[in-house]
Amino acid sequence: DGVTEVLAHRSDNLRDKFIEVPCSEDYDRHKRFAGCTPRKCGRGVTDAVITREEAERIRRIAERGLSLGGSDGGASILDLHSGALSLGKHFVNLYRYFGDKIQDIFTEEDFALYRDVRQRIQQRIAQVFGISSSAMYLTKPTFFSRMNSTGAKTTHDEYWHPHVDKVTYGSFDYTSLLYLSDYSEDFGGGRFVFMDADSNKTVEPRAGRVSFFTSGSENLHRVEKVQWGTRFAITISFTCDPEHGIGDPLLA
Question: Where are the domains of the chain?
Answer without folding.
Answer: 4-244
